């Protein structure tokens, strides 16, 4: 044993090994916990937006995608944010393992705990309404994300299946409007017996989603009109109840 100790001491002297200072260990510990905390925070952001998208996903559209369930899943499930959440869960796991007591916990418990913390944080952010603002900010400021969302919404360009989307370019009468769809085609839409969801009013440049059926070339009969996105989709209003204000929007 004495020989081993002497050999170790000799090796230390030869290699000029010096112990790290206490401040270095404190700094390393602070960095680890900070990165772990940021991973949970960013995971919470991803979770909050995922909750928002799931809550306002249009699950009732499944009947239009019976033959293509994968397309429907891509429309309603926020895969981007779930992948984002998974990535930061890996970060949280990696750095938690490097804390002083992190090695004691099983992998499953660490991962489950990280996900749970992110979901709880996401629920809090969602409750404050921040998730919708973050979603809007990403769409306005991140070209890749905006393009991704636009691709998801292109499923609404299926007039043969009863789905149409675009913006109102002209209010023809109390019974008809003219819209420009996502491919810049012009449609005349019959809104004589339409349910308007939310607090929508027929207005020029209003972006909408329409459920109904094709009547002929560039003709569409609307059974229901929805807002393009967001919390405004809650509630519903009959067409007759909104036509009083049409004169102001012409």
Descriptive terms for the model:
250 residues; elongated; OB fold (Dihydrolipoamide Acetyltransferase, E2P); 2 domains; 8 helices; 7 strands; disordered C terminus; five-stranded mixed beta barrel; single chain; alpha+beta
Structure in words:
The chain has 250 residues and is an alpha+beta fold. The protein has two domains: 22-152, no CATH class; 157-249, Nucleic acid-binding proteins (OB fold (Dihydrolipoamide Acetyltransferase, E2P), Beta Barrel). The protein is built from eight helices and seven strands; from the N terminus they run H-H-H-H-H-H-H-E-E-E-E-E-E-E-H. Helix 2 runs antiparallel to helix 4 and helix 2 (22-55) crosses helix 6 (130-141).
Q: Summarize this, please?
A:
The protein is of the alpha+beta class.
Shape: elongated
Cα-atom radius of gyration: 28 Å
Flag low-confidence runs.
Answer: 231-250
Mean pLDDT across all residues, rounded?
81
Describe the largest sheet.
5 strands, mixed, barrel
Kindly, what is the distance between the CA atoms of the first and last residues, rounded to a whole number of angstroms? Answer: 96 Å
* SSE string: HHHHHHHEEEEEEEH
Q: Strand-residue fraction? A: 15-25%
Please specify the SSE layout and strand pairing.
Blueprint: H1 2-15, H2 22-55, H3 69-76, H4 79-96, H5 107-127, H6 130-141, H7 143-153, E1 163-171, E2 176-181, E3 186-190, E4 195-197, E5 207-216, E6 219-227, E7 236-238, H8 246-249
Helix pairs in contact: 2-4, 2-5, 2-6, 4-5, 6-7
């Amino acid at each position: 044993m004495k020989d081993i100790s002497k050999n170790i001491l000799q090796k230390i002297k030869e290699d000029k090994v010096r112990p790290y200072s206490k401040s270095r260990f404190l700094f390393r510990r602070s960095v680890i916990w900070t990165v772990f905390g940021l991973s949970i925070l960013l995971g919470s952001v991803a979770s909050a937006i995922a909750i928002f998208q799931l809550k306002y996903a249009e699950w009732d559209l499944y009947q239009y995608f019976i033959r293509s369930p994968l397309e429907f899943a891509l429309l309603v499930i926020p895969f981007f944010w779930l992948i984002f959440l998974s990535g930061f869960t890996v970060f949280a796991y990696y750095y938690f393992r490097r804390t002083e007591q992190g090695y004691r916990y099983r992998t499953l418990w660490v991962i489950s705990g990280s996900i749970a913390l992110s979901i709880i944080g996401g629920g809090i952010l969602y409750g404050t309404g921040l998730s919708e603002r973050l979603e809007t900010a990403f769409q306005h400021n991140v070209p890749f994300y905006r393009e991704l969302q636009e691709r998801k919404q292109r499923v609404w360009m299926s007039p043969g299946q009863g789905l149409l989307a675009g913006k109102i370019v002209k209010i023809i009468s109390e019974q008809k409007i003219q819209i420009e769809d996502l491919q810049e085609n012009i449609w005349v839409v019959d809104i004589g017996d339409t349910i308007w969801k939310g607090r929508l009013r027929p207005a020029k440049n209003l972006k909408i989603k329409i459920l109904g059926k094709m009547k002929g070339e560039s003709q569409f009969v609307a059974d229901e009109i929805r807002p393009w996105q967001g919390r405004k989709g809650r509630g519903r209003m009959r067409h007759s109840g909104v036509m009083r204000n049409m004169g102001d929007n012409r």
